[in-house]
Amino acid sequence: METRDLRLDGNAIGGLLLELFGVELTASACVCGSCGMQEYMACLDVYVNAPGVVVRCCHCDAVMLRIVRAGERTWLDLSGTRTLELG
Amino acid sequence: MRTLHLDADGWPGHRAGQHLDVRLTAEDGYQAERSYSIASAPDDGLAITVERLEDGEVSSYLVDEAQEGDRFEIRGPIGGYFVWDATDPGPLLLVAGGSGVVPLMAMIRHRAAAGSTTPTRLLYSSRSLDDVIYREELDELAGRGDGLEVFHTLTREQPEGWTGYSRRIDRELLEEVAWTASEGPKVFVCGSTRFVDAAADGLVELGYEPRSIRTERFGATGS
Hints:
heterodimer; A: three-stranded antiparallel β-sheet; globular; B: alpha/beta; three-stranded antiparallel β-sheet
């Protein structure tokens, strides 16, 4: 298996996002904080094999979102996302 | 491969193409969670088709061990992007690699249940004829003559006298099977990351707008 085989898409974390935000987000528009491109969450590159979940822009590869869970605690890093549409 | 019919308390119903998450909790509190596409049409119960993966923590339980009456936790329905409704206009192109056919089967079943005659083509890549999921049902649905066409390609092993395709999906194969981009089809591609990338790249080369191709990737399995 190669690294490129590990690249999933935003559909893969739809359940996690539903739990964190309380709304369906795979069809939501996200704007990359780095290149400014707008994309559906479902189209973003997602890596779930990292320590936590890493979401990268499918246009410029910048990290847009990181989610780390440990037990009952969750850390959410949205510093690479300019906007995220919530329903 | 196994299809499980779930009886979920408070399930709000689903749309064709959505998935759900199964969470198993061991006695010591260890949890494992995986996503599975819903195979059934909306308004026709809740079924998932699960492929058993080597060392699959959740799939080995679901395929080999789960008994009628077992209870486990599910979360869903999930997904608002990779969904199709029978009222959506235009021809429909479905491209499946291995068990990526499952959410597309939900669309095909939804189409049949709704009495839709939307022109629909399924291009379905499997390793061998034995690996083709829903084979008889697809044959039956395609035989109704209501606008559904099914094209199989077998990438590793073909039975004697096989008249279908026998190679991996590429631009040429897509050109033979797919609607032209100008016909404005809705497109759904589901399979492994490599499969989805190959199919989507091929369609873009044929003039499809990247944004018109809806894709869903899963881990490195399937065809």
